[in-house]
Each structure stands twice: as structure tokens, then as C-alpha cells.
């Protein structure tokens, strides 16, 4: 079987077009969705992500403010800034770009952002809401993956979803969202014994380890749905995923590419969360 490719780039574009229309309606009623992104330091990958967020915000009509601060910013200064943004009415979403310099406690920062403006969905209150099956701001990459599956009417209920990777940003929450959709979920990670046996059982395989071509077609089940969250650079400087695409495509029923796969959906769901927040704050 040769898999159908799920282009997140196409779904992202159509969702952004819908959002653009929705934002026009909100603006006509005096509601301007506002996102503030805080970037600390000079990390080139972070700068590039932030630029992508700025461009996409502009496209859909979300007012996006970028605050760039030097690497030497203290934790106290950052927490004070977040408190100010928490009480600023025009700000509906606050995103502090991670990773932060090592002298700043990331968890403290996440917990200082008001849960009502936490468009990343990283605050423990929002994670708790997600875990108890409530509606909230869901973490953007996992939420984007669910949208990609739904866009192809891929059945989740009753399926065995195997997640490779257990990060707080992707692995753990995507497993939770799939569980909320009634999948049976297995988490694999660097300490898992006999990972191959789990991979071979996966109806839905989510790979988020950050290792180039960690999975290939030999490992996966015939007809599996393969979602590649990896963003790696080859020696030649090309972007590539955690899955060896060509061999996996021969076995899978659906597969996501890198680039043009999951990546564009992350920013799209960030905009979705910001618009949702603007509507709640003006509800
Ligand atoms: N760094 C890499 N991905 C993300 C993300 O989704 N949100 C934030 N805040 N930082 C990131």
C-alpha cells in the first residue's frame, strides 16, 4: 500500500483562511484578538519560529506584538513583564518562546502566565482541564495533530495509538488528547524495553523524538497512520523528520511529510487559541 500524504500545510492554509474571515467579523464588532510573544536571547531557531508566528498572525488579522529581551534578562524582570501582560486588556494570548536561558526557571514562567491567556496550553490548570476531558486551551502541536487526523476522517476510537517521545510539549499531551478521543494509548521513550514490539502494534504512530529517521518502513504495521513530529537538519542542512519517509510510505495508510506536515499546524492552532481567548474575554 502506498500511503496518502497528509499535508498539514494545506489544512493550515484552509484553517487560516477561515480564521481570517472570523477575525474580520470580530474586528467589525470592535474585538481585536491580541497575541504577545516574548523572545529572550538570540537563538536562531527560536527567532525563526517567532517570525513564522508574526507572519501568520498578520495574515489572519491577529494583532501580534513581539517583545525581544536580552539573554541577560533576569527571572524577576520576566515575571514582572508577564504580570503586566496578564492585566493588559488588549492582550488575549501570551507566549513566552521556549527554551529559556538556564538562569530562568521555565516552570515558574509557565505558571505565572494567567491560565486564561495561556494560548500554549502549558499551564498546569489547563493541563489538568485537558486531563479531565474539559474544553480548554490545548497545546498547539498535539491539537494540530488531532485536526490532521480528523481532516481525513481517520478513526481514533478503539485504535492503538503509540507515542514515541514523552515531552511536556508534544508526547504527553498528544497521548492525552488521543485518549480523550477513546484511543488506547501506549507511551514509548528512551528507557522503553523492546520498543519494536509496540511500534509494530501501532494503528496510529506518533513519532516525536528529534532523531533523524528513528523509524523506517520495516518497523511499522501495514496500514498504520504515521505522524512525524520531528524537525531535524541533515548534514546537508535539509529539514527532515524522525521517520524515513519513502520506506514508511510504502507500509502506511496515511503519513505526514517533513516539512509541510505537522509544523504549519502548530502556529495555526496558536492562532485558533488566541481567537478563542479573545472571544471568551469579550463574551
Ligand atoms: N518552543 C518550541 N515550541 C514551542 C511552543 O509550542 N511554544 C513555546 N512557547 N515555545 C516553543
UniProtKB/TrEMBL annotation:
Catalytic activity: (6R)-5,10-methylene-5,6,7,8-tetrahydrofolate + NADP(+) = (6R)-5,10-methenyltetrahydrofolate + NADPH; (6R)-5,10-methenyltetrahydrofolate + H2O = (6R)-10-formyltetrahydrofolate + H(+)
Pathway participation: One-carbon metabolism; tetrahydrofolate interconversion
Entry binding sites for NADP(+): 165-167, 231
Domain Tetrahydrofolate dehydrogenase/cyclohydrolase NAD(P)-binding as annotated: residue spans: 139-281
Classification via Pfam families: THF_DHG_CYH, THF_DHG_CYH_C
EC number, as in UniProt: 1.5.1.5, 3.5.4.9
Superkingdom of the organism of origin: Bacteria
Molecular function in Gene Ontology: methenyltetrahydrofolate cyclohydrolase activity; methylenetetrahydrofolate dehydrogenase (NADP+) activity
Annotated keywords: Amino-acid biosynthesis, Histidine biosynthesis, Hydrolase, Methionine biosynthesis, Multifunctional enzyme, NADP, One-carbon metabolism, Oxidoreductase, Purine biosynthesis
Gene3D superfamilies reported in the protein's UniProt record: Leucine Dehydrogenase, chain A, domain 1, NAD(P)-binding Rossmann-like Domain
Alphabetical list of PROSITE patterns matching this protein: THF_DHG_CYH_2
Domain Tetrahydrofolate dehydrogenase/cyclohydrolase catalytic: from-to ranges: 6-120
Function: Catalyzes the oxidation of 5,10-methylenetetrahydrofolate to 5,10-methenyltetrahydrofolate and then the hydrolysis of 5,10-methenyltetrahydrofolate to 10-formyltetrahydrofolate.
Quaternary data: Homodimer.
Recorded family membership: Belongs to the tetrahydrofolate dehydrogenase/cyclohydrolase family.
Protein name (database record): Bifunctional protein FolD
Gene designation: folD
